[in-house]
Design brief:
The chain has 286 residues and is of the alpha+beta class. Helices cover 18% and strands 40% of the residues. The chain folds into two domains: 126 residues, Roll (Diaminopimelate Epimerase, Chain A, domain 1), CATH 3.10.310; 119 residues, Diaminopimelate Epimerase, Chain A, domain 1, CATH 3.10.310. The chain has six helices and 18 strands.
Length: 286
Amino acid sequence: MRRVPYTVVHSFTSTLFAGNPAGVCRLVEWLPDDLLQAIATENNLSETAFLVGGDGRYDLRWFTPAVEVDLCGHATLASAWVLLHGPDRNRAVVSFDTASGRLEVERRGDELAMDFPARPAEACETPPALIEGLRATPTAVLRARDYLAVFDRPEQVRDLDPAFDRLARLGGTGVIATAPGPFGPSGDDVDFVSRFFAPAAGIDEDPVTGSAHCTLIPYWAERLGRTTLAARQISARGGALTGTLRGDRCELRGGAVVYSEGWLLVPDPGVVGTGGGVRGVEEVAS
């Protein structure tokens, strides 16, 4: 077996037990895809990030408990946080080569700023499974990678109680539900709120979803006539970020908190049993 450095980071928050937890695995070399997926399934977080590289530039991949995804904001933030507070602590920027192209993350005070591709949504027909799955009727439905369901009031988004088996029948990665802010008894000064559901990807509800804001920021920037927006994702854990639309790119800014650090004891390639166990395990070596 081998020891893999592993950190759990709560992203898009400044306090523990909020935001979105992501696992970050720093690898010397790539493991087989089925082993990466097995690790992510065992971690059972909405995403586990895997990194290979050094000196400020890394290859980065993201896995949910069920599938590999092409873009993940909170696990990218978590990965950059680990690097910029660890091996790259003397750098201001780290870059990642990913399925969605080159992504750069820069220090901004106590936060990190991520440069992501914008994914504007376009109007589309409303699939019956969307209404059945949300158990509510939005005022508008659009689609980019994900469906975007727009409601009039944040309380409508807060009160959604989806039928996840029906949402899982939809194409695309997931469903974003959104409404204009402010929100909450304190009148939180946010421009919009959202929730994100992706049961087909093994995530009934994602606590805070950076990639969804690649669609949300362009939508609300056009609707509100501003390019910099404050956002809150109103899942049970909750989280907040600031987004700026810059042409065909979105800058997403947020904080993070490290929850745990340690090692994963990972079998060498070829020793993962088909029954879900590990065979042929030898003595652990660092």
